[in-house]
Amino acid sequence: MIDKKNNKFAEKHQGKAQINNIIKNEILKQNKDGELPCLIAFQIANSLQVAPSEVGRTVDLLNFRLTKCQLGLYGYKPQKKIVKAKEPEGQNLKKAIQGSLVEERLSCINAWEIAFRFNVHKMIVSSTCEAMNIKIIKCQLGAF
Question: How far apart are CA 60 and CA 50, in angstroms?
Fold first, then answer.
């Protein structure tokens, strides 16, 4: 199950992390060809009542690939990133993003919170960030 020839994902944990077998079993049930979409990773975290970062770490330790970021930032073929810069229709979204910046960057969780608050798709927030030249950081799953 674990890909020994491409262990770059597990290496970022420097051998310090242990695999949670309950999370591992769910990932093994729901992955497709060693890939797990962001949405499914969050569903696993929700169902097992664990932090998304624990699921992400287990995906890494299995040397599986996280795909289809809900913000459109990674995991799409062939271009990897699918989010495109787009100005929002109103200024409120931009103001909310600017108000949530830390060192001129927006965390993934804050992007999600803004999307929820404005009742818009998460990619609306990330596309607005792209238009504003704001980098989204601290993936909740640990992908970036």
Answer: 16
Q: CA 55 from chain center: how many Å? A: 11
* Cβ atoms of 97 and 114 closer than 8 Å: yes
- Residues facing 32 on adjacent strands: 35
Neighbouring CB atoms inside 10 A of 139's CB total 20
Asked if residue 2 is part of any domain, the answer here is: no
Distance CA 57, CA 61 (A): 6
Residues 60 and 94 both lie in one domain: no
Q: What is the pTM of this model?
A: 0.89
Task: Provide the domain limits for residue 86.
Answer: 70-144
Instruction: pLDDT tens for the chain, 144 residues: list them.
Output: 444 445 577 777 776 778 999 999 999 999 999 999 999 999 999 999 999 999 999 999 999 999 999 999 999 999 999 999 999 888 999 999 999 999 999 999 999 999 999 999 999 999 999 999 999 999 999 999
Amino acid, single-letter form, for residue 117: R
